[in-house]
Design brief:
There is one protein chain. The protein is an alpha+beta fold. The chain folds into 2 domains: about 210 residues, Glycosyltransferase (Alpha/alpha barrel), CATH 1.50.10.20; about 110 residues, Ferric Hydroxamate Uptake Protein, Chain A, domain 1. The strands form 2 sheets. The chain has a 5-stranded mixed sheet, with helices on one face. A 3-stranded antiparallel sheet has the order 3-4-5, with helices on one face. β4 and β5 form a beta hairpin. α4 runs parallel beside α6. The radius of gyration is 21 Å and the shape is globular. The relative contact order is 0.09. Keywords: Cobalt, Cobalt transport, Disulfide bond, Ion transport, Metal-binding, Secreted, Signal, Transport. GO terms for molecular function: cobalamin binding; metal ion binding. This is Transcobalamin-2.
């Protein structure tokens, strides 16, 4: 069974932010489980030199423990420091700004909460400066750090390190973000962008005074997108590396889809379209449905594989299957890739 490092870390961050009642028993148990997951996450993959899950989940675990003011072994921290020094956070489809930003937030938290010794604190500050400099240098012409979804993470770095007022890149990113708020449609992505919009970071959770927090949360249901008349024709292509499959292109068909349909809706239409038997499966995640299987081929975390979503010829989609809405005449590619 694979460790649920990232999911449990996000849950503990959310739990702390909601100012739970002072009943330490269950919460202490979850923190203990997170410590266990961190060890399992790395110990089971020593031969590969990376966590079983990902550096993103691993650093989220360190951050969540720090927010709860729990110490972690120095070896755990140094694993992330080595990865930062050797630039291991990137993956096959591009940069990993979000991962690096979470690592920086974890480092900043550990130093701020004085959960590390003086010597290690100096090294952490140096790592934070290096990573922050890389983010500025890698900022795109569109103002984003990486992409629209990783930008709030990077902005939290500048907020947490008190650099947002003196760093022009931050203001540029904020302007770009304000023009693209409609991209944040899931609870997980909104939880990342809202702190940045209010000039806060996840590190502020650690210093919240819960007695002063008002219970102002009101549940609301998402409004369904307006129905659009007519249909659109989208070409659906499924590709697989030649080493894993007898042929690279496994599926190539036009799929007539309602005009306002999402990619997920289009895949459902494709399953009912004969005579070509198209199948797929999804897995629920905090970020929404995740494409886990296509034509019987599963994306396996053990093999660090996933189904990459692209628009032809080779542009990665920045939205998930439930959020992206294809255009008429567009070619969409589902490609089994490694990260």
């Amino acid at each position: 069974e694979w460790p649920e490092t990232g999911r449990l870390a996000l849950y503990l961050l959310g739990l702390r932010a909601t100012c739970p009642l002072p009943e330490p028993g269950p919460q202490r148990s979850l923190v203990t489980w997170l410590k266990y997951y961190l060890e399992e996450d790395w110990a089971g993959s020593r031969q590969h030199g990376h966590p079983l899950t990902s550096y993103y989940q691993y650093s989220l675990g360190v951050l969540a423990l720090c927010i709860h003011r729990k110490r972690v072994r120095e070896e755990v921290i140094r694993r992330l420091m080595v990865a930062e020094q050797q630039s291991r956070f990137g993956h096959a489809s591009g940069s990993a700004t979000d991962t690096e930003a979470v690592v920086v937030l974890a480092f900043t938290c550990l130093e701020r909460e004085r959960l590390v010794g003086a010597r290690l604190a100096v090294e952490l500050r140096a790592a934070v400066r290096r990573a922050r400099r890389r983010m500025v240098e890698a900022q795109g012409r569109d103002g984003f750090f990486g992409n629209v979804y990783s930008t709030p993470w990077a902005m939290q770095v500048f907020i947490a390190t008190n650099m947002c007022r003196t760093q022009p890149a931050y203001g540029w990113a904020m302007a770009a973000l304000l023009e693209n708020l409609d991209a944040f449609t899931t609870a997980a992505t909104m939880a990342q962008v809202l702190p940045a919009l209010h000039g806060r970071s996840y590190l502020d959770i650690a210093s919240m005074h819960c007695s002063k927090e008002l219970n102002t949360l009101m549940p609301i249901g998402p409004k369904p997108p307006p129905e659009m008349p007519g249909n659109k024709m989208v070409r659906l292509v499924v590709e697989c590396p030649e080493l894993q499959c007898p042929q690279r292109r496994l599926y190539d068909q036009l799929v007539p889809t309602p005009a306002g349909a999402s990619l997920l809706d289009m895949l459902r239409v494709a399953t009912a379209q004969g005579p070509h038997n198209f199948t797929f499966d999804t897995q629920d995640t905090p970020q929404g449905p995740f494409l886990s299987s296509v034509l019987g081929l599963e994306a396996r975390q053990q093999k660090r594989s996933y189904w990459q979503l692209l628009t032809a010829p080779s542009t990665s989609l920045q939205m998930g299957v439930a959020d992206y809405r294809p255009c008429d005449g567009e070619t969409l590619i589902l490609r089994l890739s490694e990260w």
